[in-house]
Amino acid sequence: MERIQTIFAIFLDTWPGFLEAVVITLELTAVSVVLGTLLGLIFALMKISKSKIFQGIANFYITVIRGTPLIVQIMFLYFGITEIVVLDAFWAGSIALGVHNGAYIAEIFRGAIQGIDYGQTEASRALGMTNSQTMRRIVFPQALRRSIPPLGNQFIITLKDSSLVYLIGVSELFAIATREAAASFKQFETYIVVGAYYLALVLIFSYLLKWYENRLDVDKA
Amino acid sequence: MITGEDIHKSFGDLEVLKGIDLHVEPQEVVVLVGVSGSGKSTLLRCFNFLEMINSGKIIIDGKEINPKKDNLSEIRAEVGMVFQHFNLFPHKTVLENVMEAPVVVKKEKKEIAQKKGLELLDKVGLGDKADVYPSKLSGGQKQRVAIARALAMEPKVLLFDEPTSALDPELVGEVLQVMKQLAEEGMTMVVVTHEMSFAREVADRVIMLDKGRIIESADPVTFFENPSHERTKQFIQMVK
Ligand SMILES: Nc1ncnc2c1ncn2[C@@H]1O[C@H](COP(=O)(O)OP(=O)(O)OP(=O)(O)O)[C@@H](O)[C@H]1O
Ligand SMILES: [Mg+2]
Fold first, then answer.
1. Which residue from B168, B222, B173, B214 is spatially nearest to B190, judged by alpha carbons?
2. How confident is the prediction for chain B on average, in pLDDT?
3. Which of A136, A202, A217, B34 is deepest in the core (most CB within 10 A)?
4. How far apart are CA A143 and CA B35, in angstroms?
5. Does position B114 have pLDDT exceeding 90, yes or no?
6. Which has the closest alpha carbon to A21: A161, A156, A175?
7. How far is A121 from chain B (nearest CA, A)?
């Protein structure tokens, strides 16, 4: 009972700071998903291209990213990037998460593109459309629509993974939690509070995603 | 209108077309029959360059096509194709399906393509479905949209690969009816089908393909009543 009161007290004490951090976490997530989507698109195209060189580059990138821990990637990119250019922690963290996301999103796009029935391509060609017209107007729009649920999922994963960039000094949710915990000596309660923030964000976003998927189904099914 | 001369086509070691000579006159309706695997689809697909022939010639409207030099997209635009599984674009409405190629390939003005599209949909009896998505249609309706979509490019020849094979029996008639009407209007057509009634009624010529060769080519009456080849007789028995 006392614990619950403490948790509540901590919540009331800390919400202005946490709310600011929520905004940073959301920005971090959004920027890295957008960046990851761009990278994912490029690498998915490379992977399905006919060029062996492009395929090789894409495979290398995807294999390395999927085969190493995110935390290693964050450190590696942070120290790598900041050696070359001056960048604040937020942007370094966003880029690191974006590069990480890119590999997963590339696989989402590749799967979606290759999942489109080959009959669509044949029908387009038979109508006289060129390869690029077929891709742009027929295959990609359908693949993109099919990518939305897994992309939403990737957004949720990123929302949680973004907590790792506290290590390079981004003042996002988790970083604020460590600070508050250290200042108040109430570690257990503070981490429950921050856990609740993440959970709330994930649930809200899951709900939005569901709503959006349903709307798509109603339109096209 | 479309001519194949000594067409050979192999997939790896498997020779599927072993020297096909086929000349289709303008306004002629040719029905292609043959057992599964005899190469009917492959022949159609060679005619619109979805498959590349290994040797031989394809001549469309008097012009021999050189697949290496000619722009194949432009040639395909002149040879329409209707598929067994319709292959409508599910993310586009019925009307958008029909307008797509005229707008994108022929750079037709949207308003013009729309007007022509609606006329074509009326023609196949689906004017009231212009704004729905294909998933809302029955198989027969889908195939009629697919025919309208092919017609929108004003092709010189229309190829049909088993257009009614994926349909419930009660929906076959409405598609055949549209095809019959096209034939009467003078469309040049090459049709692969198992609908022998269509072959009898509509075809000018019925051709039997067997193991990659044309073994019989005759008007429907001769083809069905007095075929010359033993395999044709067996085939006619089988589909009866
Ligand atoms: N892309 C391909 N790669 C390899 N083999 C193929 C390919 N397409 C067709 N074949 C083979 O070529 C032969 C002829 O196929 P085709 O589809 O032309 O026959 P069909 O007469 O249309 O038969 P069906 O009545 O079953 O449609 C078959 O043995 C088939 O397995
Ligand atoms: Mg076939």
1. B214
2. 93
3. B34
4. 36
5. yes
6. A175
7. 9
> What pLDDT is attached to residue A218?
57
Q: Is A115 on the interface with B (CB under 8 A)?
A: no
pLDDT beyond 90 at B63: no
* A113: helix, strand or coil: helix
Counting Cα atoms < 13 Å in the Cβ hemisphere of A23 gives: 5
Rounded CA separation A172/A177 (Å): 9
pTM across the whole model: 0.86
Q: What is the CA radius of gyration of chain B?
A: 18
pLDDT surpassing 90 at residue A141: yes
How many CB atoms within 10 Å of residue B106? 16
Residue B209, strand partner residues = B214
For position A220, what pLDDT does the model report? 56
Residue B95 burial by Cβ neighbours in a 10 Å radius (0-12, 13-18, 19+): buried
Using a 6 Å cutoff on CB, does residue B36 contact ligand 1?
yes
Q: What are the two backbone dihedrals, phi and then psi, of residue A51, each rounded to the nearest 5 degrees?
A: -75, 125
In B115-211 the beta strands, taken as DSSP E runs, fall at: 157-161, 189-192, 205-210
**Chain A residues touching B73 at Cβ < 8 A:** 125, 128-130
Chain-wide mean pLDDT for chain A? 90
Residues of chain A with Cβ-Cβ distance to B104 below 8 Å are: 129, 133, 137
Distance between CA B152 and CA B166 in Å, rounded?
A: 23
> Cβ of B149 under 8 Å from any chain A Cβ?
yes
* Both structure tokens of A22: 């929520």
User: Residue A221: pLDDT above 80?
Assistant: no
Rg from Cα positions in chain A: 21
Residues in chain A: 221
Q: How remote is the C-alpha of B230 from its chain's centroid?
A: 27
| pLDDT score, position B162 | 95
How far apart (Å, rounded) are the C-alpha atoms in residues A117 and B159?
21
Name residue, tokens 């981490």. A191
Looking only at the bridges linking them, the beta strands covering B213-218 and B205-210 are: antiparallel
Count of CB atoms situated within 10 Å of the CB of A34: 13
Q: Which atom of ligand 1 is nearest to the CA of B12?
A: 4
- Residue B76 at interface with chain A, using a CB cutoff of 8 Å: yes
Judged against a pLDDT cut of 50, whether residue A148 lies above it is answered with yes
